[in-house]
Inverse folding.
């Protein structure tokens, strides 16, 4: 009986640590858009919509729904099957030069505005190679992204 209680105690603490480890994990929108709601269910009000590759950080897990926050600290609930663990990033500054290569010496291909989400496809020397849902790709300095 003591061994059973000990094993159950160990299992309980392992489950707690897995749950705590999941907090702060990053997820990405894996569909053209998701509704961010004010509660864990489709009956709750839609606060805003997040587009494909929009990164979200896990705050609380509740079955198929989870509470997340975004790069500006806004919080809302999302239906988890619409998300993935794919690495993504979002522009956190007013404007960001997206370049042909991972350095300021490369040509600017386009300028991305604050709040534009991207899939991260590579990383080199403090730069991310990004791909937008519309297919545009280029490199941006990591410190300009969340």
């Amino acid at each position: 009986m003591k061994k059973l209680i000990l094993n159950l105690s160990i299992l309980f603490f392992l489950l707690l640590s897995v749950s705590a480890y999941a907090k702060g994990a990053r997820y990405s929108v894996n569909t053209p858009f998701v509704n961010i709601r004010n509660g864990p269910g489709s009956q709750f009000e839609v606060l805003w919509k997040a587009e494909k590759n929009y990164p979200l950080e896990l705050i609380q897990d509740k079955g198929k729904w989870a509470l997340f926050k975004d790069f500006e600290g806004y919080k809302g609930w999302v239906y988890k099957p619409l998300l993935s663990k794919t690495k993504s990033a979002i522009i956190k500054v007013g404007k960001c030069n997206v370049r042909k290569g991972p350095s300021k010496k490369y040509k600017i291909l386009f300028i991305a505005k604050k709040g534009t989400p991207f899939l991260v496809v590579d990383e080199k020397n403090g730069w991310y190679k990004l791909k937008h849902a519309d297919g545009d790709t280029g490199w941006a300095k990591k410190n300009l992204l969340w």
About this structure: Confidence is low (pLDDT under 50) at residues 4-21. The first helix runs from residue 2 to 22. Residues 23-86 form a domain with the SH3 type barrels. fold (CATH 2.30.30.40). The two ends are 50 Å apart (CA to CA).
